[in-house]
Amino acid sequence: MAVSNVKLLGNRPSPFVNRVRFALNLKSVDYEFMLENPSEGKSELLLKSNPIHKKIPVLIHKDKPICESLVIVQYIDETWSDGPSILPTDPYDRSIARFWAAYMDDKLVPLLRSLADATDEESKAAVLEKTTGDLALLEDVFLKCSNGKGFFGGDTLGYLDIALGCYLGWIITIQIEINKKFLDETKTPALVEWAERFKSHEAVKGTLPETEELLPLLMMRKAAAAAAAQSSEPSD
Fold it and tell me: Cross-referenced InterPro entries, in alphabetical order (predicted)?
């Protein structure tokens, strides 16, 4: 069997790894998925390939490592240019897509982590309100970018679809665990419909992790957060 010249270091639950997998699937790129198991520590290949951050994902193409999920997605789009375009072709539209992708990572990710770690109803309610507001803003972004079509990218899956869609598995799992919806039909109806289209896309099916896989990981994270909060409380 021929050795693939495209390798991806990562694991299934990571939304950032799945971003890269969606892009590779969309471009029909064959690759070797090299699993990094957190319980076993970081592999020598990961430490060698990403010596600065020492994090997944890392794409290795022709023995050259590329790091950071959004950077990797752009690299995939430019390298396999004969496949469906991921970023918009217009320079202004490309800049807008990059802006909102960065916004999602800067604003939405910390909120999702805070929701996952929340140990009391008061803090959970405050974070939930902020998360709902952020998603309402992204609802408006979707309506503007999609031009009435099915995806942020219009008729086809694009950069912002991949940037936001990678979080869907965790969003659904967190909603189930806290028994509250922040992506719901009343406040973000267009995003709810988009989420269903995204999950059923051929580049996504079988790659986006299911709740059954993520819920045990979420519960482990919550237990660790609760233990850390308890240990930080001043003793009598």
Answer: Glutathione-S-Trfase_C-like, Glutathione-S-Trfase_C_sf, Glutathione_S-Trfase, Glutathione_S-Trfase_N, GST_C, GST_C_Tau, Omega/Tau-like, Thioredoxin-like_sf
Q: Which residues pair with 65 in a beta bridge?
A: 60
pTM: 0.94
> Are 188 and 136 within 8 A, CB to CB?
yes
- Per-residue pLDDT of 153-200, as tens digits, reads 999 999 999 999 999 999 999 999 999 999 999 999 999 999 999 999
H-helix segments, 106-157: 109-117, 121-146
Per DSSP bridges, beta strands 6-10 and 58-61 are antiparallel
Helices (H), the chain: 15-26, 44-49, 69-79, 91-103, 109-117, 121-146, 159-165, 168-178, 189-200, 211-232
Task: Give 163: exposed, middle or buried? Use CB within 10 Å, 0-12, 13-18, 19+.
Answer: buried
- Distance, CA of 117 to CA of 114 (rounded, Å): 5
57 upstream amide cis, omega within 30 of 0 = yes
Question: What are 178's two structure tokens?
Answer: 């806290």
